[in-house]
Design brief:
By secondary structure, this protein is mainly β. The chain has one domain (about 25-50, about 95-440): 1,4-Beta-D-Glucan Cellobiohydrolase I, Chain A. The protein is built from seven helices and 29 strands. Strands 2, 3, 9, 10, 15, 25, 26, 27 and 29 form a nine-stranded mixed sheet that branches. A hairpin with a 5-residue loop joins β9 (about 100) and β10 (about 105-110). The protein is globular. The relative contact order is 0.19. Belongs to the glycosyl hydrolase 7 (cellulase C) family.
Length: about 450
């Protein structure tokens, strides 16, 4: 909800739009399955690619960085277009530099902090690939998406996130001629927070107004958060937008500060966090869903007429652990019906009960979200939060709000536990493991 990623902290952590040749790019394998019915699943040989914001970029004629610390190389990058021409985006050593590995077939381990010969990498973000040059796109309407997760080594203040963003299949390669790298090098990112820390947007460097790791423009698109979680808290959240493709924003459209409820996207979304919804014994270590052990997460996208072309009406959640199917907890907040799914009705009641702005409805609610679900790209990441220390997920938020007010407390974590300086020092060995990705017809991808 308040995603603000910090990529590599060493000097060579930058990206560009030309293609470098100093490091070979080899996408780690992460096969998935597509299921037409229970017990009838076919394997797809998918892989993952590292987001371009983490990659080393240098001048095309050598090794000189195009970006160091929080500053652009003024010689190579006097403006966005020139920078895109002068700078090359190179391949990645996934395991050694970024802590991204495959512990088994169909599994992906994302290490939180990785020490390497160049310095320290913090967090990562990868996308599922259908081929060497295209992201794997998903139509989620009237489907269910399932994966296994292991958050047993993911403490307070961290977020193992699995979500869908309405990115271009080719990473913007065809829409923006100055982008020569494309999906093969993880370009074209966008989400509902319209992030302004993306160094290249629409094939040009985000140089104008760049200060302290953030530029003048952002990159917006609809986002469906399947899984934002750690050991203590978890949420799933649709974030619709007024736009239906990756869109560059500036000013009010980015929705920053006082413009939060005037921008292109619903940054708050409509979240279902069991703890926030009044059930504090459902998710966590030794709870109903025991986060000390791996489990399966199932998300169903129900349409009003039960077809792939219908209008999104409801998003269901189930878990599978220890041979048991566990339905999502039901809401236990005064003024909210005791449902365990997300719908327009649930969102309206939740926003009223918590005193929140229902920008979700203003932007178009479930129907608008459903349109975006027809063409989504899968994102997997691990990150800490430089903006608000992940308090919106697992602690009290806002931190100065009355904790007895409904919706303020989202988990058991101390508000200070998620400070990046604190969590990076105390828990550098943290990691998350994602595995067994499946897409299929309703009730086809999981069983007790």
């Amino acid at each position: 909800m308040y995603r603000s990623l910090v990529a590599l902290t060493f000097a060579t952590a930058v990206l560009g739009q030309q293609v470098g040749t100093l490091t070979a790019e080899k996408h780690p394998s992460m096969p998935m399955e597509v299921c037409s019915a229970a017990g009838s699943c076919k394997k797809e040989n998918t892989a993952v690619v590292l987001d371009s914001n983490w990659r080393w970029t240098h001048v095309t004629s050598g090794y000189t960085n195009c970006y160091s610390g929080n500053s652009w190389n003024e010689t190579a990058c006097p403006d966005g277009k020139t920078c895109a021409t002068n700078c090359a985006l190179d391949g990645a050593d996934y395991a050694k530099t970024y802590g991204i590995s495959s512990p088994s077939s169909g599994a992906l381990k994302l290490q939180f902090v990785t020490k390497n010969s160049d310095g320290t990498n913090v967090g990562s973000r990868v996308y599922l690939m259908a081929s060497e040059t295209k992201y794997r796109t998903f139509n989620l309407l009237n489907k269910e998406f399932t994966l296994d997760v292991d958050v047993s080594k993911l403490p307070c203040g961290l977020n193992g996130a699995v979500y869908f963003s309405e990115m271009d299949e080719d990473g913007g390669l065809s829409r923006f001629p100055s982008n020569k790298a494309g999906a093969k090098y993880g370009t074209g990112y966008c989400d509902s927070q319209c992030p302004t820390d993306i160094k290249f947007i629409n094939g040009e460097a985000n140089v104008d107004g760049w200060e302290a790791g953030s530029g003048k423009t952002g990159t917006c698109c609809a986002e469906m958060d399947i899984w934002e979680a750690n050991l203590d808290s978890a949420a799933y959240t649709p974030h619709p937008c007024k736009v239906t493709t990756q869109t560059k924003c500036e000013g009010v459209d980015c929705g920053n500060g006082d413009d939060r409820y005037a921008g292109l996207c619903d940054k708050d979304g409509c979240d279902f966090n069991s703890f926030r919804m009044g059930v504090d014994d459902f998710y966590g270590t030794s709870k109903t869903v025991d986060t000390s052990e791996p489990f399966t997460v199932v998300t169903q996208f129900i349409t009003d007429d039960g077809t792939d072309t219908g209008t999104l009406s409801k998003i269901n959640r189930f878990y599978v652990q220890g041979g048991k199917v566990i339905p999502n907890s039901a809401a236990a907040v005064e003024g909210v019906d005791a449902v365990n799914h997300i719908s327009d009705g649930f969102c309206k009641q939740q926003k009223e009960a918590f005193g929140d702005n229902n920008y979700f409805a203003t932007v178009g609610g479930m129907a608008t979200m459903g349109k975006s679900l027809e063409k989504m790209v899968l994102v997997l990441s691990v990150w800490d939060d430089t903006a608000v220390s992940m308090n919106w997920l697992d602690s009290t938020f806002p931190t100065d709000a009355d904790p007895t007010k409904p919706g303020v407390v989202r988990g058991r974590c101390d508000p200070g536990a998620g400070l990046p300086k604190t969590v990076e020092a105390a828990h550098p060995d943290s990691y998350v493991i994602y595995s067994k990705i499946r897409l299929g017809a309703i009730n086809s991808t999981f069983a007790a």
